[in-house]
Amino acid sequence: GEDVEQSLFLSVREGDSSVINCTYTDSSSTYLYWYKQEPGAGLQLLTYIFSNMDMKQDQRLTVLLNKKDKHLSLRIADTQTGDSAIYFCAEIYNQGGKLIFGQGTELSVKP
Amino acid sequence: DTAVSQTPKYLVTQMGNDKSIKCEQNLGHDTMYWYKQDSKKFLKIMFSYNNKELIINETVPNRFSPKSPDKAHLNLHINSLELGDSAVYFCASSQAGKGYEQYFGPGTRLTVT
What we know:
The complex is a heterodimer of chains A (about 110) and B (about 110).
Chain A: E1 4-6, E2 9-13, E3 18-24, E4 31-37, E5 43-50, E6 55-58, E7 61-66, E8 71-76, E9 85-92, E10 99-101, E11 105-110
Parallel strand pairs in A: 2-11
Antiparallel strand pairs in A: 1-3, 3-8, 4-5, 4-9, 6-7, 7-8, 9-10, 9-11
Chain B: E1 4-7, E2 10-13, E3 19-25, E4 31-37, E5 43-50, E6 53-57, E7 64-70, E8 73-78, E9 87-94, E10 103-104, E11 108-112
Parallel strand pairs in B: 2-11
Antiparallel strand pairs in B: 1-3, 3-8, 4-5, 4-9, 5-6, 7-8, 9-10, 9-11
């Protein structure tokens, strides 16, 4: 089935690390994605990971993939107030490029 | 140098009306999509087109009809608008074979009164 789940809220202090978690169901997904949505804006592709990778790092972002447990996480180092947004995890479901999104995790960064 | 653009950004209309939302991408991508985001921020795909051919058509009422005049444009026409159609509609595009990275437009907020 098609199901991607995330916790709805995360609150951290500025300068701390944030970890946003996601679980998915389709083990055949070749790519998994993280998108960021700021208030009133569209979705910005942050990063993605190929399913045969365990980890991908891009500046302050680290993506970890546990394919056995179908668990994906996004770690943001040195979280800033500008990182406050909703973060969506998504998986590719089939060859048509259909993205299945999680509910989104609202990250609140307190100064 | 906007990558994926949508018009209009806001659309307020009455029940029963017919409206269209336009989308254009200048990324040279061959696939375009429409997604709907409801009031709880949940995102769900509606349609996708590859080189002007419909390849994904989720369970969407017949009142919604996508049209792709060329691979850079994908428009969404909605007939007989209902209150439940109120949402933010996002257009996206991607290039097959490149990780299906989808780039989203800024969204069109549709309010049906």
